[in-house]
Design brief:
The complex is a heterodimer of chains A (410) and B (748). Chain A is α/β, with parallel strands linked by helices. Helices cover 21% and strands 25% of the residues of chain A. Chain A is built from eight helices and 24 strands. Chain A has helices spanning 16-27, 58-71, 109-113, 157-161, 211-218, 261-275, 295-302, 390-409, and strands at 9-12, 32-35, 75-78, 81-87, 90-95, 117-119, 128-130, 132-133, 145-146, 174-178, 182-185, 189-191, 208-210, 239-246, 280-285, 307-311, 314-319, 325-331, 336-342, 344-349, 351-353, 365-366, 372-373, 379-380. In chain A, the strands form eight sheets. Chain A has a five-stranded parallel β-sheet with strand order 3-2-1-11-24. Chain A starts with 8 loop residues before the first strand and ends with a helix. Chain B has 748 residues and is an alpha/beta fold. Chain B folds into five domains: 1-125, Rossmann fold (3-Layer(aba) Sandwich); 137-248 and 449-520, FAD/NAD(P)-binding domain (3-Layer(bba) Sandwich), CATH 3.50.50.60; 251-406, FAD/NAD(P)-binding domain (3-Layer(bba) Sandwich); 536-588, Alpha-Beta Plaits, CATH 3.30.70; 606-748, Rossmann fold. The longest helix of chain B is centred in the C-terminal third of the chain and has 23 residues, at 498-520. Chain B starts with a strand and ends in an 8-residue tail after the last helix. The chains are: A alpha/beta (410), B alpha/beta (748).
């Protein structure tokens, strides 16, 4: 392991899979460069309220991960960075301008004076935030970020307020090249877009939300401070319907199963019941997929009063009276069509790999759905490789780091 | 240490909210060697000024009175190995959370500085242990996970010994002919990759395979394990740096599934028995050898059932699909039908499911099987949930898709059994012997189950959690077990299919390689990776009470015959639970000790009772409660200014003397905030918060002796994201103490 000038392991994407691959390799004595497109690391998991099946906060494990990361001089983290090109073993990394640099102390003075508001991406647009802000309370680096496009012409309010010389509105993007020994691609996923599901009210009815939006609603750092409310009027929903496989296991949308949505909805049903034990919850499913010991959460849910698990596919969601919603579904067990009403409908949308669109890094191949296929140039980890829950992503990413390092040695 | 400098940052509002001169003047005993303030300590020029002062003043310790130690960790690194650094959180704990320029706020800041001084003056620089570290990896179990772990460790540059109890490699899937597709188009069976994997392992010059072998004993610690293996040709002894346990799983015992016809009809078989038939290419009914015209699969046979296995074994739906496809491929004309509760085909296995569904002669029906009748020809009775009717299906062969049971050994139970056995023979009284016999009876089934045969005080195998899986944090840190340097992989650790077990093998190999690397530098592994301080035991004062050896969640300590602890430093995770357990207070880390925390508590000012300024000590877990408090401060939430926070590595490092000291000084109350414990624990050290609770239970006597109301000590669970709750908890406790009035011990 003592090579003269060891070339680093390059990890693309700093969600839970990429962070894991980077730390595990660095603590094994390898130099690592960890790229993240966003201004802070952590990816999708930090948008989740709790993990199943333990119902524990993702920031708890991330606390340990960031501590391990920041104490380890072998990991170099490049945020706001993406792979631009790769040729003959050399990759070009493009880093977006550092409008807020590492002199930022997170004192917050800039946010106080910022006149521009943006839809907060951390809250999936469900709330507004100043154009310059801390992305979220667990942001790492613990540093503010500026949406430069949102700045009014000529505004320098934040620059004037900052006493640490941390803001540079004229910052330029930069590029660097790197010759990695091996690469792990962990570029993650995004939710299947709601507006592709108009028949289910997606994108048209305000009280039809996605499962990822539900996570933000339940989260203490979310748009409502953790209170589950209907977007239309802020009322606490009395009847909540979860529509499983919304756009999944369906050749018109995503043909595969995203492997986490059933568990996500079971968990979210418990969020609803925790906030309002009187609330009525119906989960419409094709199969209840709770792998391994995650079965515990299904068993727990089955004991909850006022929770109905119904095998059937929801075909239509329409507006009812006073913000209410009307559902048409097939009750498979009763062999008939039923109509139902709800105050809030959660569409359990699947995961689309971010590798699906655009040019693939390093000439990787992908399957028809956009999941990356391992080859000798790079190992693919996390949801870039297959739909998976957090435990699986961590498991696979550790293995992918080992495989990449082993092939890099050869 | 004597030479300590205090460097106060005046940025982020600190300078405007506090009288910095008065703050520095408050540090009188001991008096700092120098004090300075800087408008922005975390800027490069800020830390440069500190480094300059350290060199000029030859400082042994430095206080950085600035933001929380969780912020700006990299920027505020000192890069002077011999100089201790203590962070005092003036930003989060004082100015962001309390009104500026008030007496109480200033007193809080001064107390925190004095407490920081007390800590740093008692800290010593840690000297990393430097010992000979072995780089070999031992892999126990030669199934898919073990084979891949061996390849992985070899690929990472390690010599590997692979121990397999059977005569051949391959484990439970040895006979497999096909596997489900892992690459597009995901709809056709592919040949099993196992023969290639076995060949790759056997041909690897860095891997030595011992078959027909079992581990006789493992002594020592990570980097220095001494292993003895019994092989057909005698005992082999070698050294190993880290261990991967991949002992797999066994099929659930189908003889417990009489209601599904197993045992009463020979034509009811398990999926594993079918696999053996398929691999021989001889699909036939056991009763007469005839090719069955219809094979019926019953899913979840003994799974997702509290009477049998409560969990889902994850692989059985995929196994059945593979077997259905194999029957259609190799025995065209044979019909297959599958009765399921839920078909669980995650990810792209869904595509394979869809492909099998469209194969002629395949049928899937959802239902609960009530009985399987008959002997030669069978009738499967089920309540078909799709139509709600009782129906029956004719079958010539019924296959029970049984789940998997981990091949783990319950190390702690085995230890308890051995202890009980000794007590039952040599007990002090007849009652004790009788009680011990009861325990022996209860735990007898663990006898002879040993796998690793660790020479550990806490038992010869990995401790197990729910359902017998030997993990510790299965979501965030899935390979971690409670024995340092021993990693669990494959179906031993969680139900999974072969493709997942392969990834698991590589992941565990990565962890093994990492543990060896960290041992080389004398560093702790997860979660305090990189910490080089090890506990010191002042054994002259040890009373052999064994609390430390019993309570360490990681089995770090062995005992000699008298019960004196023997440290295996490379097993240590540095949580400090032993330090909290020790009634004689003889266990200390260089930079964390009973003494340094006690000194910090003593450094708090305690105004006399007429001042109407109560004092509250808050002992907070630094992994979850402290971050929650930092987040509350970030949101500029205010809390009671009489609270003084002392962060602990883990609430389990709580030593009761701190509470006794605090109360006897007239501090009005002590609140302890740690992680959730119980089945779904969130404690990073598994047992810490639970042990803190137990210890507090033992405090009652002390409180009575001190004539202090028990309400003055409170313990609370808090999660990392409960930043809204923690200021409320502190405020409520302050209100409760106000009701109680001043501490009766104030002013003594």
């Amino acid at each position: 392991m003592s090579e003269a000038t060891p070339r680093p392991l390059l990890v693309v994407g700093a969600g839970i899979a990429g962070i894991t691959a980077a730390i595990e390799a660095a603590e094994a004595g390898r130099d690592v460069v960890l790229l993240e497109r966003e201004a802070s690391i952590g990816g999708r998991v930090l948008q989740l309220h709790h993990y199943f099946p333990k119902l524990c906060p993702p920031s708890c494990g991330m606390e340990i991960n960031t501590r391990r990361l920041e104490r380890n001089p072998r990991v170099r983290v490049l945020t706001r960075s993406e792979l631009k090109a790769a040729q003959n073993g050399t990759v070009t990394i493009r880093q977006a301008p550092a409008y807020v640099n590492d002199r930022c102390t997170a004192c917050g003075k800039c946010s106080e004076v910022c006149p521009a508001k943006v839809k907060d991406p951390h809250n999936l647009g469900m709330s507004e935030a100043p154009a310059i802000r801390l992305p979220h309370p667990n942001a790492w680096p613990y540093r503010y970020v500026l949406d430069r496009e949102a700045c009014p012409d000529g505004c320098r309010a934040c620059v004037d307020a900052c006493t640490y010389d941390a803001i540079d509105l004229e910052a330029k993007e930069r590029e660097e090249t790197l010759e990695p020994a091996a690469v792990v691609v962990a570029t993650g996923w995004h939710a299947y877009p709601l507006d592709r599901l108009p028949e289910l009210g997606g994108g048209t009815l305000p009280n039809v939300i996605s499962n990822v939006q539900m996570e933000r609603l339940a989260s203490k750092s979310g748009p409502t401070g953790g209170t589950i409310q209907r977007p239309s009027d802020g009322e606490a929903p009395k009847r909540v319907a979860f529509v499983q496989c919304a756009g999944s296991r369906d050749h018109n949308h995503l043909p595969y199963c995203s492997a986490v949505c059933c568990l996500g909805s079971f968990k979210q049903a418990l969020y609803v019941k925790e906030q309002d034990p009187e609330a009525e919850v119906t989960i419409y499913y094709i199969d209840r997929r709770a792998f391994g010991r995650n079965e515990d959460i299904l068993a727990r849910l089955s004991e909850e009063k006022g929770v109905r698990l119904l095998k059937g596919k929801v075909g239509q969601v329409k507006a009812g009276d006073g913000g209410g919603l009307k559902l048409k579904a097939e009750d498979v067990e009763a062999g008939r069509l039923i109509e139902d009403q709800a105050d809030l409908v959660v569409l359990a949308t699947g995961m689309v790999p971010n590798l699906k669109d655009g040019v693939l890094p390093l000439g990787l191949e992908r399957d028809d759905d956009g999941f990356g296929l391992d080859d000798t140039r790079a190992r693919v980890a996390g949801v870039a490789r297959r739909p998976a829950d957090v435990a699986t992503c961590v498991r696979d990413a550790t293995g992918a780091a080992a495989r990449a390092l082993a092939s890099g040695r050869a | 240490m004597e030479r300590v400098g205090v460097f106060t940052c005046t940025g982020c509002g600190i300078g405007e909210a506090l009288d910095i001169e008065a703050l520095h003047a408050a540090a009188e005993d001991p008096k700092p060697t120098c004090t300075a303030s800087h408008p922005c300590l975390c800027a490069p020029e800020g830390m440069d000024s500190v480094r300059k002062a350290v060199d000029e003043e030859k400082l042994e310790g430095v206080i950085l009175a600035a933001c929380s130690h969780r912020a700006k960790r990299q920027e505020l690194q000192l890069d002077r190995a011999a100089t201790m650094v203590e962070r005092v959180s003036l930003r989060e704990q004082v100015v962001w959370s309390h009104p500026p320029n008030e007496e109480d706020t200033q007193m809080l800041a001064e107390d925190l500085l004095l407490m920081g001084m007390a800590k740093v003056t008692r800290a010593k620089a840690a000297i990393p242990i430097s010992e000979t570290i072995e780089s070999g990896v031992l892999v126990v179990g030669g199934g898919v996970a073990g084979l891949e772990a061996a390849r992985g460790a070899s690929g990472l540059g390690h010599q590997v010994v692979l121990v397999e109890k059977e005569d051949t490699l391959g484990g439970r899937t040895r006979d497999l002919r096909y596997q489900t597709p892992a690459r597009p188009p995901y709809d056709t069976l592919v040949p099993s990759g196992l023969p290639d994997l076995v060949a790759a392992v056997q041909d690897d010059p860095q891997i030595r395979v011992l078959t027909g072998a079992r581990v006789k004993s493992i002594r020592g610690q990570p980097g220095q394990f001494s292993v003895e293996v019994e092989t057909p040709s005698g005992v082999e002894s070698f050294k190993s740096g880290a261990i991967v346990q991949a002992t797999g799983a066994r099929p659930y015992d189908a003889t417990k599934l009489g209601h599904l016809g197993y045992g009463s009809s020979s034509n009811v078989i398990t999926s594993h028995e079918l696999e053996a038939m398929l691999s021989r290419g001889e699909l036939g009914r056991p009763s007469d050898g005839k090719l069955p015209s219809r094979v019926v699969f019953i899913q979840c046979a003994g799974s997702r059932d509290p009477e049998h296995l409560a969990y889902c074994s994850s692989e059985c739906c995929g196994v059945t699909l593979r077997q259905m496809a194999a029957i259609h491929k190799d025995h065209p004309g044979v019909e297959t039908a599958t009765i399921y509760k839920d078909m669980r085909t995650g990810g792209q296995l869904e595509r394979f499911y869809q492909a099998v569904q469209t194969q002629p002669g395949s049928l899937f029906t959802r239902g609960e099987v009530s009985a399987v009748e008959g002997n030669g020809n069978l009738k499967v009775h089920l309540k078909e949930s799709l139509l709600g009717d009782d129906v029956s299906l004719d079958a010539e062969l019924v296959v029970l898709a049984v789940g998997m049971v981990p091949n783990s050994a319950d190390g702690e139970a085995i230890r308890a059994l051995r202890d009980a056995r000794v007590r039952s023979e040599k007990g002090d009284s007849e009652i004790q012997k009788k009680e011990a016999l009861k325990v022996v009876e209860e735990l007898k089934h663990n006898e002879g189950t040993e796998i690793l045969n660790l020479d550990y005080r806490q038992g010869p195998d990995l401790p197990v959690l729910r359902y017998g899986f030997p993990d510790s944090h299965f979501i965030c840190f899935p390979y971690e077990t409670r024995r340092t340097g021993i990693y669990a992989a494959g179906t031993l650790r969680a139900p999974m299919d072969g493709a997942q077990a392969a990834e698991d093998g590589w992941g565990a190999a990565m962890k093994a390689a990492q543990c060896i690397e960290e041992a080389r530098h004398g560093e702790a592994v997860h979660p305090r990776s990189g910490d080089v301080g090890v506990p010191d035991f002042f054994l002259q004062r040890c009373t052999q009470c064994k609390r430390c050896t019993e309570e360490c969640p990681f089995g770090t300590l062995n005992e000699d015959e008298k019960g004196t602890p023997q440290l295996n430093a490379l097993r240590c995770r540095r949580c400090g639970i032993c330090m909290g357990a020790c009634p004689e207070r003889i266990i200390s880390f260089p930079d964390y000790s009973v003494d340094s925390t006690a000194a910090a508590i003593k450094a708090m000012s305690v105004p006399d009772e007429f001042d109407e300024k109560p004092r509250i000590l808050a002992l907070l877990c630094e992994n979850d409660a402290l971050p929650a408090l930092d987040a509350a401060a970030l949101a500029r939430t205010q809390w009671n200014p009489w609270v003084r926070v002392v962060p602990l590595r883990c609430l389990g490092s709580l030593n009761l003397v701190w509470i006794a000291d605090a109360l006897s000084r007239g501090i009005d109350g002590v609140i302890l905030i740690g992680c959730k414990h119980g089945d779904d624990y969130q404690c990073h050290y598994v047992k810490g918060s639970e042990l803190a609770n137990t210890r507090l239970g033992n405090l009652q006597e002390t409180l009575t002796r001190l004539a202090v109301e028990p309400e003055r000590v409170k313990i609370v669970e808090l999660a990392h994201d409960e930043s809204d709750r923690i200021p409320q908890l502190l405020d409520e406790f302050a209100d409760e103490l106000e009701e109680l009035g001043a501490s009766p011990l104030k002013g003594f």
